[in-house]
Design goal:
Layout: H1 2-23, H2 30-36, H3 40-64, H4 74-90, H5 96-130, H6 141-153, H7 168-179, E1 185-188, E2 196-201, H8 208-220, E3 224-229, H9 234-247, H10 252-255, E4 259-263, H11 266-270, H12 275-285, E5 289-292, H13 296-315, E6 323-328, H14 339-356, E7 359-366, H15 370-378, E8 382-385, H16 401-409
Parallel strand pairs: 2-7, 2-8, 3-4, 3-6, 4-5, 6-7
Antiparallel strand pairs: 1-8
Helix pairs in contact: 1-5, 2-5, 3-4, 3-5, 4-5, 7-8, 7-16, 8-9, 9-12
Length: 410
């Protein structure tokens, strides 16, 4: 929206400049202005060249980089170029005294279109090279180098690097809880640290009880929960978590500052349905902060980084305490992007969050082909396959928490 407003402002300025050029007595007459500015045929040629450039660029990105969803952003550029071409053609149909202002307007708008195209190319480059959806000068190579050097030379540990690892007793509790599930196949890999879990389910909501139990364990220990979903609105799981905590004697509002939801569903699949705006307000009424993801896997990655900063701000600790990081049905975005982009997302997120430490990562996937599931589970230290059984009963795990905690303590 900021980009659209900027284009509208510059376009209005260009139109105003054209009118002034045509009506100002001190300026050149219409014939002189038309001679100095680009002719209609030149503007049409430049516009066609810009359109051809975008066709080639977006075809290359969509086909070779397996990111077809980026193609959606070309429609605004095409529409803008068509408006410019229409204005240039209009200059041949108006009286001579108005022709200069029309040509001036189309030429100025064409200049804006080239600037807008440069912005788009930079944004695509940042998405594909750095896997973030944030257009900022800090992504320029030399600026990134200076910022990183400055951060590494600082003697003070910042919040991100001042990490408290996930306690051993909490890891033990997680393993005991998962191993007690009777309608799933649980596997733990002894050679890997207990920091990542991959869950395969058959339908939405099947892992609600498991996720709620994990969340309760982290919240009870005074830690945080970050929940991202790409297949439904976050209010569904947050509502389930609220009921789960209340049955365990804990109010959601008492721990809401340590919970951040990321809505990766609405930008991709909600379209213009008004019900999701209402659900946003409902989620806000629960005092749970919701971060809206941008489109694409890079947008989800950037949203996770923003949620990380939200937790830092809301908790207010100088050291980074452990966080349960949940990604639910991230594979759903592959219908709009590609499975290759999903694999890049997994290959980056799972090892990176393990390196950052203090994070327990959970991926929940449904309706995922075996090939992509095999890649996901290969990065996890634990797997839980629930495809062979029905959903876990809502309270099947309740009542075991204290016993598990006591066993791990001893």
């Amino acid at each position: 929206m900021k980009t659209l407003r900027a284009v509208a402002i510059v376009g209005a300025m260009a139109i105003a400049g054209g009118v002034i050029a045509a009506w100002d007595p001190g300026s050149a007459n219409a014939d002189t202005v038309g001679a100095e500015l680009l002719a209609p045929t030149s503007i049409l040629t430049a516009t066609a060249g810009l359109i051809a450039f975008h066709i080639g660029l977006y075809t290359l990105v969509g086909r070779e980089r397996k990111s077809p969803y980026i193609i959606n952003s070309v429609f605004l550029v095409f529409l803008f170029c068509l408006v410019i071409a229409a204005i240039a053609l209009l200059s041949t149909l108006v009286p001579d005294w108005l022709q200069g202002s029309i040509l001036y307007t189309s030429g100025a708008l064409l200049f804006v279109a080239f600037l807008f195209s440069a912005f788009r190319v930079f944004r695509i480059a940042v998405r594909l090279i750095y896997f973030v959806d944030s257009v900022h000068p800090k992504h320029i190579g030399i600026i990134r180098y200076i910022r990183r050097r400055k951060a590494m030379q600082s003697p003070r540990p910042n919040y991100a690097h001042n990490t408290i690892p996930v306690p051993a007793d909490l890891k033990c509790e997680i393993i005991q809880m998962l191993s007690q599930i009777k309608n799933g196949v649980f596997e733990t890999r002894e050679g890997l640290d207990t920091q990542a879990l991959a869950i395969a389910v058959r339908h939405q909501g099947q892992a609600n009880a498991v996720l709620a139990e994990l969340s309760e364990a982290f919240l009870t220990a005074g830690f945080s929960v970050q929940y991202l979903t790409a297949s439904r609105h976050p209010i569904e799981f947050v509502g389930y978590l609220k009921r789960h905590l209340e049955q365990s004697g804990m109010a959601l509002q008492s721990v809401a500052k340590r919970i951040v939801a990321i809505d990766a569903y609405s930008p991709h699949f909600a379209f213009i349905d008004s019900i999701y705006t209402k659900k946003d307000r409902e989620l806000e009424s629960l005092d749970v902060t919701c971060v809206l993801s941008k489109m694409t896997f890079a947008g989800m990655h950037s949203a996770a980084s923003r949620a990380f900063k939200v937790i830092q701000k809301q908790v207010g600790d100088s050291s980074r305490k452990p966080t349960l990081v949940i990604y639910e049905d991230a594979y759903a975005i592959s219908d709009l992007e590609s499975s290759e982009q999903y694999r890049i997302f997994v290959r980056h997120v799972m090892p990176s969050e393990r390196m950052w430490d203090g994070m327990f990562t959970v991926f929940v996937e449904s309706a995922q082909p075996d090939g992509d599931w095999n890649i996901l589970q290969s990065y996890a230290s634990m797997t839980l396959n629930l495809r062979g059984g029905e959903a876990i009963a809502n309270r099947a795990l309740v009542g075991r928490t204290d016993a598990r905690r006591q066993n791990c303590a001893t």
